[in-house]
Structures are given as C-alpha cells and as structure tokens.
Amino acid sequence: MRKLKLDELKRASVDEFKAQDKLPVAVVLDNVRSMHNIGSIFRTSDGFAVEQICLCGITAQPPHREIEKTALGATQSVNWTYYETPLQAVEQLRKAGYRIIAVEQAENSTMLNEFTPLDNEKYALIFGNEVNGVSDEVMQHIDACIEIPQFGTKHSFNIVVSAGIVLWDFFAKMAM
Prior knowledge:
It is a single chain. By secondary structure, the protein is of the alpha/beta class. The protein contains seven helices and seven strands; from the N terminus they run αβαβααβαβββαβα. It has a seven-stranded parallel beta sheet, sandwiched between helices. The longest helix is centred in the C-terminal third of the chain and has 16 residues, at about 160-175. It is globular and about 50 Å long.
C-alpha cells in the first residue's frame, strides 16, 4: 500500500470549500482556554465541513499564531463569529433554527451512540471549558445533552478528542 501525495488528495480550495454543501452543524466553544485546542477544532471542523464555529467568552479569536499552529489555515475556510457570552450564541443559533445540544456529562444525557440526528434539522453542538465544561447558564437553555460513553479511569476526554468523536458521529449519521 502506498500513501497518497498531497497533490493526489484533491482537496478543495478555500473558495471551493466555502461554496460546497456543509454539514448542518455549528460548533460552539464555551470559554475554551487553549489556543491549540481552538485551532485543532477549526481543523476538525474544516475536515467535516461544518457550517460555522461560534467562539464565546474567553475563547481566543483568529488571527493568532498559537491558533494557527494547529488550525493549519482552517481559520480561513471555516466561517466563525465571536460572541461575548455563550448564551448570546445560543440565542442567535436558536433564532436561526438550530437545535441546541450540549456535549457534557449530565443527568438524563443521551449517550452519543444512542442519539440519532433528525433529517432536515440543524444542530449547534456546545463544547465547554477544559476544566469546568459547558457553563451552568448555558445548560439551562439547551434542547438536549449528549454524552460520550467512557470506560476507563479518567472522567473526561480532551475537548479536541470530544469534538472529533462527536463531529465524526454526526457526519457519519447525517452525510452518509
């Protein structure tokens, strides 16, 4: 087996990416501290062609070299907006017809493997702060909560790993 060279991957240009159909998902970053995490989520969001990213609160905004270290240019392809608070993002997304879903460990959460996105629905997936998770204020305004099943000794995944798992699952269930 031979690895493909970059020119064989036939990746879209930024303009082609912006014009293509998107996964009907918005990623909301609720006070994410690490710029490397932010950049990695941009790159993952580009890979799954999400509609947009909402950067909220203390979440840093491009352009910033620490974000670009891991984004590798995805800040140019993925649409993003900054909101002073995550609740402002949630309110705007709800007005735009998105179903608001926290990715969090919570009472009555639905395990990701048991969640089925509905056809013709748009979803806003909220990923929380690396230490405190999705803010309590936002948790009072969600439509549902998804939890990633875990079986080890640690109580959580890194936010980037969580975003990759959840976005892949939504892509697999909605786009295939």
